[in-house]
């Protein structure tokens, strides 16, 4: 049984975290498996959308605390181990945003600490009713500093800080209101609702989505003038694509586009 299962269908890659007995914790093995798939997807033109889900009763419960405790047995008290662990987790989270394909989190049960970070690091998220989100490390004396990076870039600052400093959970509808997830659906509809969005995105011109996703994150780090200058150049490049020319012509002629990609 693989800790991370992959299934590709209709240009959608499904990555299914498969460690239900550990609530799909981001163990060393899970992080390695996710990193391997991220590196593979970087150069896979057959995939246009990625969906991440979890087996069992939870999406992801964050880092594997048993492994972290074992790491303390080193002579340095675990300092090198912890740095490597958090560096590898960061590589996975940033790798998801650097993928050319949009990534959708399909969330149920709980998404806590680094699991909540995983949701926030995906480009979109669909949650089942009843899902709970938290960056609750403070409850055990560990402030969720790295999850804070992704969370504070998804929801308003004061609400992010409240979650971080109190360790309290929010429900799916509150997460939707704050902008952490795009949509909340009945649990029985979660897979279908996620698939609907994935297939809609997959139907678009892949080259346009790729250049657009990259520009989306680049401009977010810029000042207003630089952002407009950068995205203007991106649109110029996009306009010169053969398939974009065909898409505009098809729209004007009221016919489906004949895209090469």
Helical content stands at 40-55%
Query: Outline, from the CA principal axes?
Result: globular
What's the Cα radius of gyration? 19 Å
Largest sheet: 6 strands, mixed
**What's the domain count?**
2
Name the poorly predicted regions. none
The helix/strand series, from N terminus to C terminus, equals EEHEHHEEHEEHHEHEHHHH
Quaternary state of this entry equals single chain
The secondary-structure class comes to: alpha/beta
Classified in CATH, the superfamily of the largest domain is 2-enoyl-CoA Hydratase, Chain A, domain 1
Question: How is the largest sheet built, in terms of strand order?
Answer: 1-2-3-4-6-9
CATH topology of the largest domain: 2-enoyl-CoA Hydratase, Chain A, domain 1
Architecture overview:
This protein has 261 residues and is an alpha/beta fold. The chain folds into 2 domains: 4-202, 2-enoyl-CoA Hydratase, Chain A, domain 1, CATH 3.90.226; 206-252, Orthogonal Bundle (Lyase 2-enoyl-coa Hydratase, Chain  A, domain 2), CATH 1.10.12.10. It contains 11 helices and 9 strands. The protein has helices at residues 28-41, 65-71, 79-98, 114-121, 145-151, 157-166, 172-178, 190-202, 206-220, 224-239, 242-252, and strands at 4-9, 12-17, 49-54, 103-107, 110-112, 124-128, 132-134, 170-171, 183-185. Strand 2 (12-17), helix 1 (28-41) and strand 3 form a beta-alpha-beta unit. Helix 1 (28-41) runs parallel beside helix 3 (79-98), helix 4 runs parallel beside helix 5 and helix 9 (206-220) packs antiparallel against helix 10. The longest helix has 20 residues, at 79-98. The protein is globular. The protein starts with a strand and ends in a 9-residue tail after the last helix. The mean pLDDT is 96. This is Enoyl-CoA hydratase domain-containing protein 3, mitochondrial.
């Amino acid at each position: 049984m693989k800790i991370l299962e992959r299934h590709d269908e209709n240009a959608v890659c499904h990555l299914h975290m498969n460690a239900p007995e550990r609530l799909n914790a981001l163990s060393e093995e899970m992080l390695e498996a996710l990193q391997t798939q991220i590196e593979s997807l970087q150069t896979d033109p057959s995939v246009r959308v990625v969906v991440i889900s979890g087996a069992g009763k939870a999406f992801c419960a964050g880092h594997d605390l048993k492994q972290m405790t074992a790491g303390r047995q080193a002579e340095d008290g675990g300092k090198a181990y912890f740095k490597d662990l958090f560096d590898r987790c960061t590589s996975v989270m940033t790798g998801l945003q650097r993928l050319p394909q949009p990534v959708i989190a399909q969330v149920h049960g709980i998404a806590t600490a680094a699991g909540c970070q995983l949701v926030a690091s995906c480009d979109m998220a669909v949650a089942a009713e009843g899902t709970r989100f938290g960056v609750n490390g403070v409850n055990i004396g560990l402030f969720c500093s790295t999850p804070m990076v992704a969370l504070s870039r998804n929801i308003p600052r004061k609400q992010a800080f409240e979650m971080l400093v109190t360790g309290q959970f929010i429900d799916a509808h509150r997460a939707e209101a704050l902008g952490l997830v795009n949509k909340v659906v009945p649990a029985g509809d979660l897979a279908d609702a996620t698939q609907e969005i994935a297939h809609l995105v997959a139907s678009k011109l892949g080259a346009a989505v790729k250049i657009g996703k990259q520009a989306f994150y680049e401009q977010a780090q810029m000042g207003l003038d630089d952002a407009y200058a950068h995205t203007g150049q991106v649109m110029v490049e996009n306009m010169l694509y053969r398939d974009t020319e065909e898409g505009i012509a098809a729209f004007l002629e009221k016919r489906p586009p004949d895209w090469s990609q």
